[in-house]
Amino acid sequence: MGLHLDFSVVLERWPLFLDGAAMTLKLAFIAILTGGAIGTFCAIGRGSSNRFIAGLCAAYVETIRNTPLLVQIFLVYFGLASIGFKFSAFSVAAAALAINVGAYTAEIMRAGFEAIPPSQIEAAEGLALSRVQIYWHVILLPAIEKVYPSLTSQFVLLMLASSVTSQISAEELTAVANYVQSDTYRAFETYILVALAYIALSLVLRAAFWALGQVLFPRRRRLGTPL
Amino acid sequence: MKRSLTLALLAATALACAGQAARADLLDDIMKAGKIRIATDLAIPPSGMIDGAMKPTGSDVETAELLAKDWGLQLEFVQTTGATRIPNVQTNKADIIISTLSVTPERAKVIDFSKPYAALQSVVGCLKSVEAKSWDDLKGKTIAVSRGTTQDTTLTNMKERDLKLARYEDDATMVTAAVSGQADCVASSATIVSQIGVKAPARPFEPKVSITNFDLAIGVKKGEPKLIEKLDAWVEQNLKNGKLNAIYKKFHGTDLPANMRG
User: Does the keyword Iron apply (chain B) (predicted)?
Assistant: First the structure.
């Protein structure tokens, strides 16, 4: 009994894998941008003095964080279609992933906001900064800076989680792998290759976030450490 | 060339008959015993299955029952699986096979087939309201398939027809896509296509364009020409009088292909 690996039939389908990887990155990019925005607003909303807004944000975060991603995807994809709204698998996948990562981002961002010392905001008020200036320079950016590593790993997790959208026929990397292995019967080789591709994608994503951090947070660049 | 082929065939037939003379004919044995043993897989609905009262039912089961009744024989089912259908008749554990046995050249080397009595129809089915009669009408429409099935591979290779495929992980998800409205067309077996409307009356689907038909025939071990002849006559008669079509329609929800109904 020996294990015979033959990558040739799998490798010759490389354009398919490339398309799949591009689709995975595209899904992750859209979901991170929109989900990041949803999460940030939700974290602000949870701390709001308006009890309706705070309750709404809390309900959203708790619902999403306590249900499986696959169920959420099926709900959006088949649920919306049942009541007459038909969107492509790609847009539903991107939307469902954004809604999902939004809830997790909200919790991470809330931790960031709570870590801002009230005295820092009072000091900014004392210096007569406008409300917008305070929110941007004294609260938001330092908050993001504090939780930046957690955000990065959450976003990488999201990119990996996008693999389940193959269930609703989004043609991302895992869908391509499932197709290729059913075509070639070379399951082991296919999934080895796809695992390597995901590792590469993760590294690319991490590098991109590191570079973005260097641009966004000059203090970190100079001191090599967050605040 | 043609003559030598005919001669060879004659010689082969003579040889086969000579070999046969040594033992009794299977058809005679069956008639003498007053009982026919039919190999049927009872775990592949809707062709063969066990009903709520633990009795065998399904299109293949009713076909077998019809045959036994017409020939005035007692019927004995030999339970089988897909892989053991052919060995069952080769080793004389069963007389004939009625079990979604599709006619293939490989199988024809080891057993003989009767005339086809039914078909496995692979189709593109759409919502009844969708106007689609040919492949051209399907251009630009999203067709749901189960990933890696023969329908997936066949349609994927039809590059010139410009079809849009949405691949789902399994039949269940594909059917959900059809029921929920994500897909107005699916490529699958005719049986599944008609099942959609049964389960979800709001969205009835019907076969629109045929992909392939696999003939299903009765299998008999090699070298039983009298039995094959009698089976052929029986199949022909019951296709003509519509009984086989009625059985098929009862379980699969669609008619047999038009060219079979004669």
Answer: no
